[in-house]
C-alpha cells in the first residue's frame, strides 16, 4: 500500500511539473533559453564541434558512459581533436 501511495505522489508531481518547479533544478538563464530558443539555424564552422554533435546524436540511445568512453578513445587516437564533453549547455554561434 505504501508503494502505491508513493507512486501516486510521484505521478502527481509529474503531472504538476513546471519549469518553475523547485524540483526541476533549472536556473533562470536555462529556463529563459528553453522558453526562447534560437530561431535561426546554427552555423557550425568548427569541425571538432560538428564531430562532437554528430557523435552525441549517434549515441543518443546509449548511456553517458558510452559517450565518454568513445570520447576518450577518440582523444587517445587523435589528440588534436577537441571533442566536447557529454554536457552541452549553449551552442549559439
UniProtKB/TrEMBL annotation:
<protein>
    <submittedName>
        <fullName>Uncharacterized protein</fullName>
    </submittedName>
</protein>
<feature type="compositionally biased region" description="Basic and acidic residues">
    <location>
        <begin position="24"/>
        <end position="34"/>
    </location>
</feature>
<feature type="region of interest" description="Disordered">
    <location>
        <begin position="24"/>
        <end position="43"/>
    </location>
</feature>
Amino acid at each position: 500500500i505504501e508503494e502505491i501511495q508513493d507512486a501516486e505522489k510521484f505521478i502527481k508531481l509529474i503531472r504538476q511539473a513546471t519549469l518553475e518547479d523547485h524540483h526541476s533544478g533549472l536556473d533562470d538563464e536555462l529556463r529563459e533559453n528553453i522558453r526562447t530558443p534560437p530561431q535561426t539555424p546554427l552555423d557550425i564552422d568548427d569541425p571538432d564541434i560538428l564531430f562532437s554533435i554528430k557523435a552525441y546524436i549517434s549515441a543518443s540511445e546509449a548511456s553517458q558512459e558510452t559517450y565518454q568512453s568513445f570520447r576518450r578513445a577518440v582523444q587517445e587516437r587523435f589528440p588534436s581533436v577537441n571533442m566536447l564533453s557529454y554536457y552541452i549547455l549553449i551552442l549559439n554561434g
